[in-house]
């Protein structure tokens, strides 16, 4: 199964994540909706509904009436640590919280995570610019300056399709849009270094911008880490295959990670409630 992509609309060029949003875009496309058929894949509709229910339960927690910024900040920290762990860099959360971190992959993940809030309003207008900015933050200590924010030429065509999905209208649930954006970027690997961190951040940012988690308090990266790096790699390989079963498996995997990320957000809320 292949997902039809639209042509590109642009080129790539320390608090919590924040919740500032522009006026919502129309959700119904004027032409064919490339993502609508995803709901008909085996198990995908139920998985998406379960993810949405889990996030809604988190968003209803009473702590968020007064402490959403604190939950968002902790979520950003935990998300960055989990994203780095999927790259093989596993640093204890307590150590990350102290700021005693020198490992460049984790430092880059932290920079991206805390900057997502400033990217929300631009993501659905100029995703190429945001993607380039993500890579600058993620790989600043890993690649030469001249290579920062510059996707490979080979990836340009597929990236244009991703940007079309980000800026376009669709009736598909936000969790599935986020999963496709994540999967496309992870599959195409537009950057020689840092593509995994960028792909997971882009998926999370899509969920925030599309209203799945507007307060940025869930931690989907923790969900992926809990499911395990081998399961993540296997699901991504299925997505890369382009088969209906492979795509469905990836989407279900992302939905399950989103569920677990909402549970992690609830744990953060409860910890703040206990003081």
What this model shows, in words?
With 275 residues, this protein is mainly α. Helices cover 61% and strands 0% of the residues. The chain contains 12 helices and no strands. The longest helix has 31 residues, at 244-274. It is globular and about 50 Å long. Residues 4-16 and 18-24 have low confidence and may be disordered.
Describe how the helices and strands are arranged:
Blueprint: H1 44-59, H2 64-85, H3 93-98, H4 104-115, H5 120-123, H6 127-139, H7 156-167, H8 174-188, H9 195-209, H10 220-227, H11 229-241, H12 244-274
Helix pairs in contact: 1-12, 2-4, 2-10, 2-12, 4-6, 6-9, 7-8, 8-9, 8-11, 8-12, 10-11, 10-12, 11-12
- Report the average pLDDT across residues: 90
Percent of sequence in beta strands:
under 5%
Number of beta-strand segments: 0
Report the sheet with the most strands, covering strand number, pairing sense and barrel closure: none
Could you give a short description of this structure?
The chain is mostly helical and about 280 residues long. The protein is built from 12 helices and no strands. It is about 60% helix and about 0% strand.
Supply database-style keywords.
mainly alpha; globular; 61% helix
């Amino acid at each position: 199964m292949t997902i039809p992509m639209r042509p590109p609309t642009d080129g790539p060029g320390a608090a919590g994540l924040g919740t500032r949003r522009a006026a919502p875009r129309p959700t119904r496309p004027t032409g064919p909706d490339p993502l609508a058929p995803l709901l008909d894949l085996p198990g995908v509709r139920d998985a998406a509904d379960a993810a949405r229910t889990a996030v809604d339960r988190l968003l209803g927690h009473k702590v968020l009436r007064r402490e959403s910024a604190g939950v968002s900040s902790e979520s950003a920290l935990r998300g960055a640590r989990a994203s780095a762990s999927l790259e093989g860099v596993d640093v204890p959360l307590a150590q990350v919280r102290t700021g005693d971190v020198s490992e460049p992959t984790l430092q880059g993940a932290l920079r991206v995570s805390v900057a997502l809030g400033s990217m929300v309003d631009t993501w659905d207008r100029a995703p190429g610019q945001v993607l380039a900015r993500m890579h600058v933050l993620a790989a600043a200590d890993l690649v030469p300056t001249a290579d920062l924010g510059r996707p490979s030429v080979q990836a340009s065509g597929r990236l244009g399709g991703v940007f079309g999905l980000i800026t376009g209208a669709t009736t598909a649930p936000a969790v599935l849009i986020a999963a496709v954006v994540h999967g496309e970027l992870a599959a195409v690997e537009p950057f020689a270094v840092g593509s995994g961190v960028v792909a997971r951040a882009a998926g999370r940012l899509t969920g925030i911008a599309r209203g799945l988690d507007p307060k940025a308090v869930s931690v989907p990266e923790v969900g992926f880490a809990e499911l395990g790096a081998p399961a993540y790699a296997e699901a991504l390989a299925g997505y890369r295959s382009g088969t209906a079963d492979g795509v469905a498996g990836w989407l279900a995997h992302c939905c399950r990670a989103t569920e677990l990320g909402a549970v992690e957000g609830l744990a953060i809320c409860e910890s703040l409630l206990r003081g």
